[in-house]
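Why should sequence recovery work at all? Because a backbone constrains its sequence more than one might expect. Tight turns favour small or flexible residues, buried strands favour hydrophobic ones, and helices have their own preferences. The token representation captures these environments compactly. In the example below, the structure is given first.
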């Protein structure tokens, strides 16, 4: 396991943008897969975006090209750029890392979690 520290959440109006950051305490097999998941009020946790050590990325179907995940290996940091935000994007966003992962299986593979950062989008 690694420690993950998130930053960048906040409140914006619909159509606005936010960038989330997540820095890992170390890089190892446990950070081969890093990504973001979210859990809205009364909803189940769902995968937002993930990136593999190969550079391949996956996104949740609801993203529809609005978000972009990237990784800076030198800084051990993963970013999530979120544009065209909608009120339904309001949720607690969690950074996660693990040796494997699947965008459609939010509870599978992750073994390290950040504390979460709140994103609130008003209409």
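From this structural description, the recovered sequence reads:
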């Amino acid at each position: 396991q690694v420690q993950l520290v998130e930053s960048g959440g906040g409140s914006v109006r619909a159509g606005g943008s936010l960038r989330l950051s997540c820095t890992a305490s170390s890089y190892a097999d446990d950070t081969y897969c890093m990504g973001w998941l979210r859990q809205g009020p009364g909803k189940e946790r769902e995968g937002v975006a993930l990136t593999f050590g190969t550079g391949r990325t996956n996104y949740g179907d609801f993203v529809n090209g609005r978000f972009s995940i990237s990784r800076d290996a030198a800084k051990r940091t993963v970013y999530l750029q979120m544009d065209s935000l909608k009120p339904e994007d309001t949720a607690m966003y969690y950074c996660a890392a693990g040796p494997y992962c699947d965008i459609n299986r939010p509870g599978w593979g992750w073994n390290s979690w950040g504390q979460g950062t709140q994103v609130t989008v008003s209409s």
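A few observations help interpret the result. The two ends are 38 Å apart (CA to CA).
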